[in-house]
Amino acid sequence: MSMSQIEVTVLYFAAASTAVGLTEERVALQPSFHLNALGDHLISLHPNCGLDKVLQSSQWSVDAEMVEDVDQVVLKGGEEIAIICPVSGG
User: According to the UniProt entry, which residues carry 1-thioglycine (predicted)?
Assistant: First the structure.
């Protein structure tokens, strides 16, 4: 990570974890990175694994709070970001 980057922790749950083969990952980003661009960045880090399809139906949480509008969230570094996949039950 260069001095001009920030770092966040991404938590992968359920189908997201299965797709990328990880439960957690530290990701370096440019400063003032918008959450709405994180999905595309993660897909570029993990191409051809199906993460793109998982993210289409998933939600995001930042520091254990669900995000309603990803366009409004600017990451400053140090955040814990979770990909919350839909859950079905019976």
Answer: 90
Every domain of the chain and the residues it spans? 6-84
Q: Nearest 5°: phi and psi at 23?
A: -110, -20
Per the CB < 8 A criterion, the answer to whether 9 and 26 are in contact is: yes
pLDDT at 43 over 60: yes
**Interatomic CA distance for residues 37 and 88, integer angstroms:** 27
Percentage of the chain exceeding pLDDT 90: 90
CA 37 to chain centre: 9
DSSP label of 35: G
Q: What fold characterizes domain 6-84?
A: Ubiquitin-like (UB roll) (3.10.20)
Residue 15 pLDDT class (50, 70, 90 cuts):
very high
